[in-house]
Amino acid sequence: MSSLTEKDRPIVQLLLSTGTCPRCVLRFCCVGSQTLYRHPHKDLMKDLQEFLENNQEKEDPVCVDEVDPPCKRIRLEHGAEGADDLNHNGAIPQVPSADSGNAAVESSAVKVCNVCLGILQEFCEADFVKKVCQKVHSADYQFTSFVFSVSLPPQLSVRERAAWLGVKREMRNLGLPLAKDDIVQLKEAYKWIIHPQLSEELGVPADGKSLFEVSVVFAHRETDEECHFLATACPDCFKPAKNKQSVFTRMAVIKALEKIKEEDFLKHFPCPPSSPKNLCDALEIQCNNGAVFVAGRYNKYSRNLPQTPWIIDGERKLESSVEELISEHLMAEFKADSFNFSSSGREDVDVRTLGNGRPFAIELVNPRRIRFTADEMKRLQQAINDSSDKIQVRDLQLVTRSAIGRMKEGEEEKTKTYSALIWTDRAIQREDIAFLDDIKELKLDQKTPLRVLHRRPLAVRCRLIHTMKSEYIDEHHFRLHLKTQAGTYIKEFVHGDFGRTKPNIGSLLNRTADILELDVESVDVDWPPTLAD
């Protein structure tokens, strides 16, 4: 790290005298040592006091050099002050005496920091860390690492700017050059301090790529209105948003601070910022696990079961659905907050899905339990199958988010096989339907069916019937086996939907035709992988 040197002395003394905590002092002096920030608050105050007491003009480090990874910076000042900022002979002027600095240290030791509002003070202590860990343990999550996130009050950015301008003004008055180095971000310094303590208490490492997030939301009601002057100075930066309770978001405030002129800022906000009476509040301590994805195939044996809950005008039509029969078991076992169901197409409420079933995937949101063995997944599959005779599930397995994309890839280029029981108004003989077996790659123009027009846009879709095979039953009934392009409306291909599907079975047979039963016999999507029984 770059330890404190003589050029940092006026910054240290100014900030301490105006009520800034020692860790924020280190941030403004661009100290990048993670380990140094972890020193106890009292020790840091003592080190800074000893630094101020030393009036030698040579560089005088506060502590030994420590090697740490490079830190992120937040840019508060663009450009560097040149040689014109030095006094006429280049010497470093006298700074206020150490005695006055000591008084400042003593008084600031008990104050709430005027920059971080106490976040780098009380909220770095062991008691708060234990409070966070108690929340994590009580939530009963499975996790092997964690990522820690912090939400800060937006007015912290305003106070940080004010403190920086104070430092800039003091250095200019002393005739000292002001380097263009950038201060350490408050969030980053806080994580440097808190990560090792959380890791020790939780027994797992901090990992920026972890799916398990521990988050803390800070607020400071006493200073909530300190951002409001920016809305007058930079109204374009504050636009109402539907999902935001306030226009004064952190990003909006930062954008305004980048735009506002220095002299306009100083007209509206004290520099240095005043010391608050109260600490920040930790409004929320939350845990969240990344989503887990479960895939499989389902068979549907009922002709009175929708794929998803059937609700019309707020009224539920049927008591259950494929989605619910599967998800209720997964929700219970994974202890998730909610779920999202998707599948490779869908069947109507009165259509069965047979054969190898229809591929589906369920996203389980914020699950408490995330680790399941292959045997546990088999037992979960069996529990689903034992719970209802309307559906069966196979190949139930954990998958990744990216793997789900394979279920949707080229969905309309995939093929599906159906079996339809068809009725005709006029009598038929075997030879009347035999020609259907010879038709290959029949092109259809299907206008959006009347029955789905309320939820699908009006359009004409071109679809293919790849093959057909007829099975004569009696003078008014036959079964037709079809292999089609995915997305083909089979019912409309049979009865024509008042001429909205052309050609159709009715027009091909030159008689009225209707469909009595429809079964999906196969969905030709090679996903998810087949599992051994």
Brief sketch in words of this structure:
The chain is an alpha+beta fold and 533 residues long.
Description of the molecule:
With 533 residues, the chain is an alpha+beta fold. It folds into three domains: 6-52 and 112-226 and 269-288, no CATH class; 291-411, Alpha-Beta Plaits (2-Layer Sandwich); 416-523, Alpha-Beta Plaits (2-Layer Sandwich), CATH 3.30.70.3190. Helix content is 31%, strand content 23%. Strands 6, 9, 10, 11, 12, 13, 14, 15, 16 and 17 form a ten-stranded mixed sheet that branches. Helix 1 (9-17) packs across helix 5 (98-108) and helix 7 packs parallel to helix 10. The longest helix has 19 residues, at 155-173. The radius of gyration is 35 Å and the shape is elongated. The protein starts with 8 loop residues before the first helix and ends in a 10-residue tail after the last strand.
Set out the fold topology:
Elements: H1 9-17, H2 22-28, H3 34-37, H4 41-53, E1 73-74, H5 98-108, H6 126-139, E2 147-151, H7 155-173, E3 183-184, H8 186-202, E4 212-219, H9 228-233, H10 250-259, H11 262-268, E5 281-289, E6 292-300, E7 311-312, E8 315-316, H12 322-334, E9 338-343, E10 352-365, H13 374-387, E11 391-399, H14 401-408, E12 415-424, H15 430-433, E13 442-447, E14 460-474, E15 477-485, H16 490-495, E16 501-502, H17 505-509, E17 513-523
Parallel strand pairs: 2-4, 10-17
Antiparallel strand pairs: 1-3, 4-5, 6-10, 6-11, 7-8, 9-10, 12-15, 12-17, 13-14, 13-16, 14-15
